[in-house]
Amino acid sequence: MAGILKTIVVVTLGVSLGLLSTWLAVERGHGFGAVNAGVWMSWPKTGSSDADPYARAVVARTGEVPLGVAEGLSFLARTDENGDALTGRCDYSVRSPVPTGRFWTLTPLTLDGGRFSPAGERSGITSGEIVRRADGTFEILLSRGVRPGNWLPLARAEPFQLMLRVYDTQVSSTATAVDARVMPRIVRGECA
């Protein structure tokens, strides 16, 4: 009788731990195979047939439409260059470069992937509309107050993340590393 009771306890504990670890993996991540490039992270295989089961579960849960292998790559940043979490209480400067690609977009998002900008205001900026300096470099300002030049509004004083999508890029979806020197720098300014 004691042997059966031990077996039931072990099986119950194993199933509970398995379900808990799966729930945590799906709720808090994008699966395995993350590629780091400074403060930016990407999961290149999420939009491919090689996506791991956890990445597929995240896509199913969030309804996100990941970029396909031949379309490009998405990168997320939740911290600035100093490792501090991005928050709408602070101003930020996002500075070039960006990985080579045909087109790119930069969008602030809530931590769960929703719209962070106020309704009716611009929610992102693209490589097609960016104002560049004479040497080709650029700076995008993110703040709660209006700024001249390349500006994105931050409506809320809460944590957020930045999504950079680079379309038709030479950075491969099979890449195991991306050089941080080709990724934009995120520099914190004044905080309220």
Describe, in plain words, how this protein is organized in 3D.
With 192 residues, the protein is α+β, with helices and mostly antiparallel strands. The protein has a single domain (31-191), classed as Sandwich (Jelly Rolls), CATH 2.60.120. It contains two helices and ten strands; from the N terminus they run H-E-E-H-E-E-E-E-E-E-E-E. The strands form two sheets. It has a six-stranded antiparallel β-sheet, with no helix packed on it. A hairpin with a 2-residue loop joins strand 1 (35-37) and strand 2. Helix 1 (2-28) crosses helix 2 (53-62). The protein is elongated. The relative contact order is 0.22.
SSE diagram, text form:
Elements: H1 2-28, E1 35-37, E2 40-42, H2 53-62, E3 72-77, E4 90-95, E5 101-109, E6 125-126, E7 139-143, E8 151-153, E9 161-169, E10 185-191
Parallel strand pairs: 7-8
Antiparallel strand pairs: 1-2, 2-3, 3-9, 4-7, 4-10, 5-6, 5-9
Helix pairs in contact: 1-2
- Note the main sheet: 6 strands, antiparallel
**CATH homologous superfamily title:** Domain of unknown function DUF1214, C-terminal domain
Shape descriptor reads elongated
Instruction: Name the helix and strand elements from N-terminus to C-terminus, one letter apiece.
Output: HEEHEEEEEEEE
Quickly list its features.
Jelly Rolls; alpha+beta; 6-stranded antiparallel sheet; 192 residues; elongated; 19% helix
Write a brief structural summary:
The protein has helices at residues 2-28, 53-62, and strands at residues 35-37, 40-42, 72-77, 90-95, 101-109, 125-126, 139-143, 151-153, 161-169, 185-191. By secondary structure, it is an alpha+beta fold. It has a single domain, classed as Domain of unknown function DUF1214, C-terminal domain (Jelly Rolls).
